[in-house]
Amino acid sequence: MPNNDLQGRTIAFLCAPEGTEQVELTEPWQAVERAGGTPRLVSTQSGRLQAFDHLDKADTFPVDTTVDVSDHTEFDGLLLPGGVANPDFLRTQPNAVAFARSFFDAGKPVAVICHGPWTLIEADAVRGRTLTSWPSLQTDLRNAGATWVDEEVHICDQGPNILVSSRKPDDLKAFSQAAVDAFKP
């Protein structure tokens, strides 16, 4: 049943032009829409984003805006889907890293799943925070000053903002709900 918990709220979904795990984009996107919010796809290039189902090409999605012309002031929260290639590309793009970091600096909620924390590591946004991720990132997160936990969803409020994290597609129901809750006014 639709609700209006996020009425008037716009959530940025930051994705690379290629490599986003499709279900980690579409399920939270639909959850934001069901809650009355407006999701917007932000990338490093205009055009269409090529999503993936693990290592296989899946659907394409239209990019709403790019990191070089947008900033956190246009959004009420940030969601970072995973997929291995997606955050690995984003962390090499200074504008994408700065875009992600700006949500922390502004105290706005951020939700991240799977390999998505790689972008936040590059943004130096995980130091002193507790989060979960795909298990292969735990050493990277610890080396970046974070505490890693193996949980379906973890909500960290020990920092400048709320940080919601999850491990994998199996966690999407809990992750999407926790993200929507964090994005509420």
From TrEMBL:
<dbReference type="InterPro" id="IPR002818">
    <property type="entry name" value="DJ-1/PfpI"/>
</dbReference>
<dbReference type="Pfam" id="PF01965">
    <property type="entry name" value="DJ-1_PfpI"/>
</dbReference>
<dbReference type="GO" id="GO:0016740">
    <property type="term" value="F:transferase activity"/>
</dbReference>
<keyword id="KW-0808">Transferase</keyword>
<keyword id="KW-0315">Glutamine amidotransferase</keyword>
<comment type="similarity">
    <text>Belongs to the peptidase C56 family.</text>
</comment>
<dbReference type="InterPro" id="IPR029062">
    <property type="entry name" value="Class_I_gatase-like"/>
</dbReference>
<protein>
    <submittedName>
        <fullName>Type 1 glutamine amidotransferase</fullName>
    </submittedName>
</protein>
<feature type="domain" description="DJ-1/PfpI">
    <location>
        <begin position="10"/>
        <end position="181"/>
    </location>
</feature>
<dbReference type="InterPro" id="IPR006286">
    <property type="entry name" value="C56_PfpI-like"/>
</dbReference>
